[in-house]
Amino acid sequence: MAELEEWTCEYDGLILNSPDSAIFIKEIEGLLSLPDIRSSDLELVQRDGLWPGDDFLGGREITLSLRVQSRYDDQFARVVNALQTAFAAGREELPFRFRLPGLCRGETAFVMCRPRKRDVTMTEAFARYATDVTVSLFATDPRLYSQEMRRTRVTTTAAPPLGPTEGLAVPMAAPLLFQERQGPLQKPKFQRIEVRGSEPVRPLVHFEDAVNPRLTHVTSGAHFEARSNGELLADFDTGTLSDPRGRPLPNALAAPSSTWLRFAPGANWVALTHGDEFTQARATISWRDVWV
């Protein structure tokens, strides 16, 4: 999807507030507000107050107050028809994209939603090719997502190959000499991940040339480890393992001690290790920044 211009929005191909558009935004309500909260607090018996439970996000309702202003009757008819088409009822959720300075770091972001209400006021201005339109959109997932998918790559350091005096050669001759390597064969490299949103994110990790890869969140000490060999796609949001095409891998398993990592807003440090110290493994970490 293309980047939007500043102060513009888009839904199902309909651009709002663009300089060459006849649809102007007067007000947006609910996009920056906190969505409804579902609480699991319990009433205390014969005591004041409540027993605190967990809070969960409800849906997000977005209200768009629009102004349609045209100079010609054919253009006015096309714009009204485009509004009816884009904001029709009974549709699946589509991305409502926006780029508003001050919101989501001024980047193009989106929320998945569908129309629930459309009010068009027909006054004497309608005869002059102008009218006010109010559209209500509802998002079952209230989070705002950055349009850009961010990526960071972390690798391992491969140990040098065995020297002429290391390992075993056949046939062997006396005397036998054994040389011990000093220090670890695999030194982890630390990679910084910067989450710019306001909410923690669960990434999508693509492991390559990795034998039983282990991704450690150095900041928190938690780690994820998989029992696999070769390429592996780990979706930390859904908790699934698959090949790069999304097909399930029956032989790939997450280790019992593993945690499906999530990265908090701000700086996070990760390190990658795996079971073959002579091969460089790679992990591409992808995520979208999230706001509520």
Write a concise keyword list for the protein shown above.
about 290 residues, mainly beta, Elongation Factor Tu (Ef-tu), domain 3, Jelly Rolls, 2 domains, 9-stranded antiparallel sheet, 5-stranded antiparallel sheet, 1 helix, about 40% strand, elongated
Regarding quaternary structure, what we see is single chain
SS class: mainly beta
Largest sheet: 9 strands, antiparallel
Rg calculated over all Cα atoms: 28 Å
What is the CATH fold-level name of the largest domain? Elongation Factor Tu (Ef-tu), domain 3
Tally of helical segments: 1
Instruction: Show unreliable segments.
Output: none
Organism: Streptomyces cacaoi
Protein name: Phage tail protein
How are the elements arranged and paired?
Elements: E1 8-11, E2 14-16, E3 23-29, E4 37-39, E5 42-43, E6 50-51, E7 55-57, E8 60-69, H1 73-86, E9 94-99, E10 109-121, E11 130-139, E12 144-146, E13 150-155, E14 190-195, E15 204-211, E16 214-217, E17 223-227, E18 229-235, E19 240-242, E20 253-254, E21 266-273, E22 282-287, E23 290-291
Antiparallel strand pairs: 1-2, 1-9, 3-8, 4-7, 5-6, 8-11, 9-10, 10-11, 10-12, 12-23, 13-22, 14-21, 15-18, 15-22, 16-17, 16-21, 17-20, 18-19
